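Example 4.3 (complexes with small molecules)
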Amino acid sequence: MDLLIAHVSDIHVGKVNFLPEMLEACIKEVNERDPDLLVLSGDLTGFGFKEEFSLAREYIDQFRQEKFIIPGNHDARYRGDIYFEKHFGHGNNVREFSEELTLIGLDSTIPDLDEGNLGRGKQRWLKDKLADIPEDSLKVVVLHHHLVPVPMTGRERAVLNDAGDVLKILVEEGVDLTLSGHRHTPYSWFINNIAVVTAGSPSTEKVRATIPQSYNLVRITDKWIEVRVKEIKGEERLMSKYRRTKGRLEFRLKELECKDVI
Ligand SMILES: [Fe+2]
Ligand SMILES: [Fe+2]
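Answer. The structure with fe (ii) ion bound is encoded below.
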């Protein structure tokens, strides 16, 4: 197995705080890198407006990779969830990318609210779907809201409301990797054998102080999961690396190499 995932989040297409030339650069960079899969973990738009979704679709169509797309809280504003579904399908879905890798997407949004929640119904759905995945397949869960607080983002807010219950399910069902966005800040945690990763934003002004616009590159081999942060028009840095052992992850590095990133 040697698979490269471009994890892009929070492109925030619209009239406010959107940096179109940065998104164009991101698309160019990703297409040149030619990953096997593009994961877009929500906040495709600024306010969930119809015109924003049409424009976001035009941009996203320029990525030449297979895509896996879920919504964020901004996409659910003003009932933008209706347009999200029209353009990109249902947020809750299972994709068997290969015999070795299965993705589960979760719609953690609540219309018109910034906070995220799954609730008992979706929790049950998640547990059932995870239980169906063969033991030797890598399990990747994608959701917009972060499961664990992210450093350098000021006052913590909008961690998934039911993050504790969801994390328990992910641990019990042997999930290997989660990919989220929302705080526009790249970071990696390692919790009960799960690599918990958030991506920055490539194309909004709403990034924090010294954190540049960026996206993540996740390389998965039989032995490693390696997460790198690629600054738009800038440097690429290793953020975290995990060793896979007997199908599960084992923490490889003593320290996450995040200090250089944020
Ligand atoms: Fe966002
Ligand atoms: Fe968000």
